[in-house]
C-alpha cells in the first residue's frame, strides 16, 4: 500500500471514488492507515486501542488479524515501539538460503561451508580495509585453514 500523499492525481481520484462507494473499504483503509502510522512512527503504545477497534469492526479478516496480534502482544508492541531491527540477521539467513538454492544437487555441505565462509571473509576484509587500512596480504591469507579459502 502506498502512502496516499504520494499518489498521482489520477490514482488519488480513483481512491476517493472507491472509498465513497464502499463503507467497508473506507473503514478498512482507515484501520490500515492507523496501523501504518504506528509502524512508521514507532507508536506501539497505541496497539491495544487499535486491536480493540479492529476487533469491534465487522471486517472478519481484520478482526482475525487483530486477534492473532494478541497472541504475542508484548513482542508485537516492542516491534512497533523499539528502533531495533532483525534486518541484518534476516539478510544473512536470506544469503545462506540463496547459496543453498544455487548449489542444490551440485555439492555437499563442505562446499556450502566454503562458499559461506569465503563470502564472510571477503566482506570482513572489505570492511577492515575501509575502517582500519589495507587488507592483509596474500601471504597472510594463505596461512588461513584450507576450509576457509
Automatic annotation (TrEMBL):
Recorded hits in Pfam families, A to Z, give: DDE_Tnp_ISL3
**Top-rank taxon, per record:** Bacteria
Q: Where is this region: Disordered?
A: 122-149
Give me the segments passing through the membrane.
none
Under InterPro entries, the record lists: Transpos_ISL3, Transposase_DDE
This one is known as Transposase
Q: Which residues form the Transposase IS204/IS1001/IS1096/IS1165 DDE domain?
A: 2-115
